[in-house]
Amino acid sequence: MSQTFKTNVNATFDFEINKDAVSNLDVIQISDSKQHVIHQNTSYHIEILESDFNNKFYQIKVNNTLYEVSIFNDLDILINDMGFSVSASKQVNFIKAPMPGLILDLRAQVNQEVKENDTLIILEAMKMENMITSPRDGIIKSIAVKQGDAVEKNQLLIEFE
C-alpha cells in the first residue's frame, strides 16, 4: 500500500506526493542538510535550511530558490478536519524527574518567564548530566527542589502557572 502526503509550497501551491515516488528518486546525501537529486534526467541541488518536524514545516533551497513546504499525511488532515490543531499548544503544568538523580544546577526562578526548550534544570544521573528543558512557553509558578537535592523518579521539580 502506498502512502500519499499532501504538500503545500509557499502557502500557494498544493501537491500530492506518493511515498513510493519519493523513494524511487536518485538521491546522493552530501551532508546532513544537503542532497543532490536527479529526477527525470534533471539535476537538483537541495539544502534543508529549517525543519520543524512537530509542525511539519520545512524551509528548503532548491537550485538557489527558497521554498517553504508543509507536509501532511492522512491523519494530520483528519485531525484538522475534526477541528483540532496538529500542533496544538502543550498544556503541561508541571515537570517531574524522569529518573532518580542529583540536582546539579537550577537555571530557572519562580515567576520567571521561559520559552519552550529553555534549559531549566541540570540533573545528574548515572554520571551523566541531563538537561531538563521547558516543555512549553510559560511562567514558573514554583520550584520544588534546590541545587544539591537528590530526587526520585517522578518527583515534582517545577510547576507552571
From TrEMBL:
InterPro entries: Biotin_BS, Biotin_Carboxyl_Carrier/Decarb, Biotin_lipoyl, Single_hybrid_motif
All copies of domain Lipoyl-binding, residue ranges: 83-161
Assigned keywords, A-Z: Biotin
Nucleotide-binding listed as a keyword: no
The UniProt record lists the keyword Acetylation: no
CDD domains registered for this protein in UniProt: biotinyl_domain
Name listed for the protein in its UniProt record: Acetyl-CoA carboxylase biotin carboxyl carrier protein subunit
Naturally occurring in which organism (per UniProt): Gelatiniphilus marinus
